[in-house]
Amino acid sequence: MTKVAVFGAGSWGTAFSIVLADGGNDVTIWARREEVAEAINNSRENEEYLPGIELPPAISATHDVEKAAHGADVVIFATPSQTFRSNLVEWVPFLAPDAVLVSLMKGVELGTLKRMSEVIAEETGAGPERIAVISGPNLAKEIARREPAASVVACADEDVARRLQDRVHSPAFRPYTSVDVLGCELGGAYKNVVGLAVGMAIGLGFGDNTTASVITRGLAETARLATRLGANPLTLMGLAGLGDLVATCSSPLSRNRSFGEKLGQGMTSDEIVASTRQVAEGVKSCASLRALAERTGCDAPVAQYVDDVVSGRITAQEMMELTLARDTKAEME
Predict the structure, then answer these.
(1) Which DSSP helix (H) or strand (E) runs through 152?
(2) Of 81, 108, 87, residue with least CA distance to 32
(3) What is the pLDDT of residues 26-52, one digit of tens each?
(4) What is the pLDDT of residues 215-254, one digit of tens each?
(5) 3 state SS for 98-150
(6) Can you give the C-alpha Rg of the chain in angstroms?
(7) Is the pLDDT of residue 1 over 70?
(8) Is 26 helix (H, G, I), strand (E, B) or coil?
(9) Domain 2-179 has CATH 3.40.50.720
(10) 0.85 exceeded by the pTM?
(11) Is the dihedral of CA 263, 318, 306, 238 positive or negative?
(12) What is the dihedral of CA 185, 161, 13, 16, to 10 degrees?
């Protein structure tokens, strides 16, 4: 077996640890809270985030950073994106100097507007050949139940992407490779914002025509920004773009869609946050993506209006009205 460290014991970090174990890796999960690590080791399940899912014997957990990272030639990061940098600074001294560093996170950092791969590069000094991302239509509970799924492993070094592909390939998880790290990351971050918008439409009581329209225009907005920043447009048509978008917007398991539904029903962001331990990444990333679009000179009404609703400046109903009142144009403009 080869050792993989997974930093993050939430639902996605735990679910992906199952994929890694099924792929033949020895997995150590680092948990922020010691009681979570102990519960995983003692009960063989993550009772708080994935109750009822038995974890393979190859998975163990620890609250000790050094123990988690020791001997790991691949390190997976699965923490909330907005706290990632401060955590990474503490972890860096314990990471092997040649380890491949992999982001499962789907967010853009507030203030810096950096993608997670850029945060990794800045804080570790790792070159692009050691930094990868994995992104696709991967709802944690379904992955943990080993329902068939596919995803994209992206790294600037295609050989590294292929080696990671082999490490995460399991009977129920089919990975594809890509060298378009930027496109995969922006597709993953933006779909959360679109998921919030779709959730608002559902919360307001609208049907499939409305949600299909929001999804399609959200995809166009995602592709517009990503390609302007240098992404391959085909990436946004693939698993890390359209695939992830469809899963997030169509499933009640999606945190962002669920958060959006509650906004549509009239709850405030603070009220929703207080009611759950789960993190909806789009709630923070909508402001980052809006700022990134403005800096790039890219029209981004979905990010703009979602940010306004999340911040309490407008209501979900007003968002729909403003969207419909926008100037008409050719679809491919």
Answers:
(1) strand 149-155
(2) 87
(3) 999 999 999 999 999 999 999 999 999
(4) 999 999 999 999 999 999 999 999 999 999 999 999 999 9
(5) CCEEEECCCCECCCCCCEHHHHHHHHHCCCHHHEEEEECCCCHHHHHCCCCEE
(6) 19
(7) no
(8) strand
(9) yes
(10) yes
(11) positive
(12) 120
Q: Which long-range contacts (C-beta less than 8 Å, at least 24 apart) are formed by 273-280? A: 277/48, 278/10, 278/11, 279/10, 279/80, 279/255, 280/192, 280/196, 280/255, 280/256
Residue type, 46: N
- Domains of the chain by residue range: 2-179, 182-324
Residue written as token pair 């491919």: 332
DSSP symbols for 274-324: HT-SS--THHHHHHHHHHHHHHHT---HHHHHHHHHHTTSS-HHHHHHHHH
CB atoms within 10 A of CB 57: 9
CB 32 within 8 A of CB 124: no
Domain covering 182-324 assigned CATH 1.10.1040.10 in the classification: yes
**Distance (Å, whole) CA 27 – CA 25:** 6
3-class DSSP state for residue 237?
coil
Q: Please enumerate in sequence order all residues whose Cβ is within 8 A of that of 139, keeping only pairs 6 or more positions apart, or say none.
A: 247, 251, 253, 254
DSSP sequence for 163-227: HHHHHH-BTTEEEEEES-HHHHHHHHHHHHHHHHHHHHHHHTT--HHHHHHHHHHHHHHHHHHHH
Instruction: Indicate the Cα dihedral angle 57, 49, 247, 232, nearest 10°.
Output: -70
The sheet carrying 131-135 orders its strands as: 59-62, 25-30, 2-7, 74-77, 100-103, 131-135, 149-155, 173-178
Q: What is the 3-state secondary structure (H, E, C) of 58-85?
A: CEEEECCHHHHHCCCCEEEECCCHHHHH
Active site residues: 191
